[in-house]
């Protein structure tokens, strides 16, 4: 995957939207938000959708931006 500014904004906005929905849903049912964020991360990672990420430079770039 090439990290252009459009892709970064798209992925970031999708993750933010899903996290907000998970947080509001979790608050309604009394589930801790951290647990839901972990589940969202697992869903969008290699455990759920099967997205493989093995580039150390891009991981460092994402970590510095986060």
TrEMBL record:
The keyword Transmembrane helix applies. It comes from the Bacteria. The chain crosses the membrane at residues 32-51. Keywords: Membrane, Transmembrane, Transmembrane helix. This is Na(+)/H(+) antiporter. It comes from Bacteroides reticulotermitis JCM 10512.
């Amino acid at each position: 995957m090439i990290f252009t500014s459009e892709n970064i904004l798209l992925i970031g906005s999708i993750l933010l939207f899903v996290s907000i929905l998970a947080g509001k849903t979790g608050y309604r049912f009394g589930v801790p938000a951290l647990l839901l964020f972990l589940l969202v991360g697992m869903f969008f990672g290699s455990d759920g959708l099967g997205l493989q990420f093995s580039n150390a430079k891009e991981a460092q770039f994402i970590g510095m931006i986060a």
